[in-house]
Amino acid sequence: MNRTQRATLGGKLSAVLVAAGSSVGLGNIWRFPYVAGNNGGGAFLAIYILCVLVLGLPLMIAEFTVGRASHRNAVGAYRALDNKWSFLGYNGVLAAFLILGFYFVVSGWTAEYMVHSVTAELAQYTTAEEYAGMFERFIRNPWRPLLYTSVFVLATHFVIALGVQKGIERSAKVLMPLLFIILIALAIHSLLMPSGAEGLKFFLLPDFSKVTAATVLTALGQAFFSLSIGIGTMVTYASYFKPETNLRHTALNVTILDTLVAVLAGIMIFPAVFSAGIEPSSGPSLVFITLPGIFNGMPLSMVWSSVFFLLLVVAALTSTISLHEVITVYLHEEWHLSRRGAAWTTTGGTLALAALASLSLGILDGWRICGLNLFDSLDYVTANILLPVDGFFTCIFVGWRLDPKVLEAEITNQGRLNFRIRRIFAVLLRYLCPAVLLLVFLDNLGVF
Ligand code: PHE
After folding, report:
1. Does CATH number 1.20.58 belong to domain 3-444?
2. Ligand 1, from 18, 31, 258, 322: best to mutate by most atoms within 8 Å of Cβ?
3. 23: CA distance to ligand 1 center in Å?
4. How many CA atoms lie within 13 A of 410 on its CB side?
5. Which one of 79, 80, 322, 424 is most buried, by most CB atoms within 10 A?
6. How do residues 363-420 score in pLDDT, each as one tens digit?
């Protein structure tokens, strides 16, 4: 495709906003608290932050480099730089498809909770058991989650169909700061609950005695999932960046924002979890059981709840858009479908997978893959296998195979910016990141 035909994103802020829009989502507010709760709290948080800084940040810069150097979709980008490495792009497109399979389902739940907040239905219950019962009944129902998931898929389709500039940029710009403010308010409220201090201790005080190889892999997978790396999203988005966008600053800002939102979500959830007597290891249902309890104790509870779930819906939407875009632009540029046709194909395929994943929590629960239902398998395989594997090969590709002049030109904006951290960056990307990723993998396979 002709480079001049491709859209570019607006000013300096836009690059940060769209990339942060992709990163900040259900991964921070739904997935992070549940995996942190499953993996012992404080120690998980410490390992997670280490993974973000040491592995996530350099990898995001590497993906930005690949995207902007080639101005192509994830597959085309790797192919343009080195034909043999296009498998990394395919891995990304596949991961995006599989992630959407469960992500759309959880997005549908947030939409349903938003509606229940507006109609004040959520306010009917009071105890954690009642909320847990309500959530169970809801996800097992064959129709209602499907309905909300479909609405969500169509909303994503609508934004994608509007095109890159209008759709993605505008929706990312509007409600992100508001999400931040409401998270801070809810975190403060939660800390003032009866067992607030106990919850905070669980989340912040590390107890490394419980850490296993699986904990480290989970933290790593969560870091990649939350930052949207190892999947081609950042390659795709960077292909729309302007020549003057500073890749390092953009990556740093996105990483800081994303981590702050995850930590705030933890500070909001765990004090409330302990105060309501919920098990922190309750799994994917954790926030859906905990949040309504937080709102219940607040004045104007349903107003808070409605606004919060609305913002969560928006955060989820800016992430589903980025995942959808990876597949759409791949089909458009590589298969030469029209952009509309590519978008509809992606929408149809992901909706079918999401419908199966949603039903796998109810009537299709009997379909098991290695003991997990489809919903949990999609979550596990993408975060714990596809994303880290992609990350490993991206390090090797950008660190060893890519022409260093290309890397240098992208990072310094053709020599206009200085690159003082060149040595550290090279050591991280060439040695430390691939070594850590490999060790964590081998350790999980029981090699040591
Ligand atoms: N990072 C998003 C979130 O945390 C999810 C996502 C993963 C988006 C991978 C794009 C690519 O919710």
Report:
1. no
2. 322
3. 5
4. 24
5. 322
6. 888 888 888 999 999 999 999 899 999 999 999 999 999 999 999 999 999 999 998 8
- Where are the chain's structural domains? 3-444
Which residues of the chain have a pLDDT value below 70? 1-5, 10-13, 163-174
Q: How far is the CA of 188 from the centre of ligand 1 (A)?
A: 26
